[in-house]
Amino acid sequence: MTASTISKIEIFRVPPRWLFVRVETSDNIIGWGESTLEGHTEAIEGAFCDLRERFVGAEADNIQDIWQTAYMGRFYRGGPVLMSALSGLDIALWDIKGKKLRVPVWQLLGGKVRERVKVYGWIGGDHPSEVISAAEARKAQGFTAVKMNGTDAISWIDSPSFLQATADRVKQVKSVGLDVGVDFHGRLHKGMAKQLAKLLEPLHPMFIEEPLLPTQPEEIADLSNAVSTPIALGERLFSRFDFRPYLERRAIDIAQPDVSHCGGISELHRIASYTETYDVGLAPHCPLGPIALAACMQVAICAPNFVIQEMSWKMHYNVTSEDDPAAEADLHTYMANPEVFTVKEGYVAAYKITLAGPGIGVEIDEERVRRASENYVHKGSPWRNPVWRGEDGGLREW
Ligand SMILES: [Mg+2]
């Protein structure tokens, strides 16, 4: 096998809030990655100044050496910014290796252990309401499971009436015939979270996600012991090392690393094996773009403890064709082969359709990416998350 040298690393910020990575090699292989860190696009662009300086000229085949050098070779390591940048580079290098060897990445990771990948969509936005029509729309798309936000902005100890409203919404979604995961989004503090977890327990949600902020592994472990509902967490953890306190405390049942933040396909695959040793399932977090989703799917196909995959198709952050056809920025917008993510009976038929192609299996419409990126950059600031304040003027978790 002749060596492929990295000749160019480009990044593209595109709507709705994504950052794509394009890596080209000396033998003209193009790999795509995704380094989206929602709301912190410029920080990732800065981190790429360093990655470009270090790895243009490096052998693209040496994914593990590049990963370790990016991680260990500059003293400071980990965290959302450095790891999201590394994630996009890692995904692109796996895409290149698969294309060079003409096999999907999941073959390089050991081959499939399942035929289809179970997926879920989102209902409601940041302010969860009107859930029935949203649930019906997801059902019509082919989903059998969804996720929703548990509460709106909530103070440290808020009115108990907030909690009953959440339980009512969960009941409404279940009445449509869908399984539902409830994302607490780290919005609740312990005094409210333990009440809501208890209230939801008899409704059998698939999981409750980020019941508390990830700074609270001990308190999350207490909550995990207090209810039978599976506890999910991981989108704000950035390596297998970050998962360790949650695993050692038996605090979680489902790990949700985000392939765009946790170190790419290399680290997602390692986290899958690591969490399996604690009897913890894997549900990769992915409210992001098509490249991140394809990267998650590579691991989902070959990880024995895989549970379910998040998908952003028609999610509230995206601009869908129903919203504005001219400005569409949805999961399929930048893809030349959107059919690979077809959802049927709650699954994507991954090995037959999605990821039979070499590399990560998605074909990117490069012209569209370049055009969209140019327009988006001219608009000024990229996407930012809202900053929430309560009736008293005090900050609330978003
Ligand atoms: Mg979440």
Automatic annotation (TrEMBL):
The organism's place on the tree of life at top rank: Eukaryota
Annotated Pfam families: MR_MLE_C, MR_MLE_N
GO biological process entries: amino acid catabolic process; D-galactonate catabolic process
SUPFAM superfamilies in the record: Enolase C-terminal domain-like, Enolase N-terminal domain-like
Cofactors, names only: Mg(2+)
Molecular-function GO terms, alphabetical: galactonate dehydratase activity; metal ion binding
Record-annotated Mandelate racemase/muconate lactonizing enzyme C-terminal domain positions: 128-230
InterPro entries listed in its UniProt record: DgoD-like (IPR034593), Enolase-like_C_sf (IPR036849), Enolase-like_N (IPR029017), Enolase_C-like (IPR029065), Galactonate_deHydtase (IPR023592), Mandel_Rmase/mucon_lact_enz_CS (IPR018110), Mandelate_racemase_C (IPR013342), Mandelate_racemase_N_dom (IPR013341)
Keyword vocabulary terms for this entry: Lyase, Magnesium, Metal-binding
Family annotation (NCBIfam families): PRK14017.1
Protein's UniProt name: Enolase C-terminal domain-like protein
